[in-house]
Amino acid sequence: VASHDRAVLGSAESASQSLGQLYEHGRYDDEISGLQAQLETLVALLGEEDESTLTSRNNYAGLLNVLGRYEQAEEQWQLTLERQLRLFGTEHPQTLATQANYSVVLSNLGRIRDAERSDYLALRGRLRTLGELHPDTLSSLDNYAVLLAELGRVPEADAIHRLAIEGCLRVLGPEDPATLHALSNYAIYVN
């Protein structure tokens, strides 16, 4: 990367911090425009398959999802996931995070069976690579249990939710937001 391009790249990367502040202040349209511009800059300088580009695309998809632009978020996460699978493989932490995010948008689109399959892949990979008590694995257990409950597979959902809650209590403690989230999901979806 040429020195001019490095300067532009540094500018694009530092813009991420100020974009986060826009989000915190509810200026979503400004943030979406900023993330889109950052992504376009990274694609132009580094290409579609650079790790920074993939991270930027993942962040862009996440904001689209939060804003309810599910079809656009699905497209961005699908592109990211396809590239990460090809470049990093099925068990790379970034691939697994994108796989989990992709299942969220599929669920938001009402495609619960597809979401369950996607989340299962993320959970299976996290169990193998991170272990059963890693916070990301515990989050995947919680999310997977919710999807199972939505599919009417309540006994399976109950067992998996219990594992998630026990793990969260053991590793994160009773006051951690992830523990409280798992307890809330259990109360809503299983109990």
Could you please describe the fold and organization of this structure?
The N terminus is likely disordered. Helix 1 packs antiparallel against helix 2, helix 6 runs antiparallel to helix 7 and helix 8 packs antiparallel against helix 9. The longest helix is centred in the N-terminal third of the chain and has 22 residues. The chain is mostly helical. It is 83% helix and 0% strand. It is built from 9 helices and no strands.
Short summary:
The protein is 83% helix and 0% strand. With 191 residues, it is mostly helical.
Helix-strand makeup class: mainly alpha
Strand content: under 5%
Q: How many helical stretches?
A: 9
Shape descriptor reads globular
**SSE pattern:** HHHHHHHHH
Mean pLDDT: 88
Helix percentage: over 70%
- Tally the beta strands: 0
Tell me about the biggest sheet? none
The rounded Rg comes to 18 Å
Which runs of at least 5 residues are low in confidence (pLDDT < 50)?
2-19
* Distance separating the two termini: 55 Å
What attributes characterize this protein structure?
191 residues; mainly alpha; 9 helices; globular
Secondary structure layout:
Layout: H1 3-24, H2 28-46, H3 51-66, H4 70-88, H5 93-108, H6 112-130, H7 135-150, H8 154-171, H9 177-190
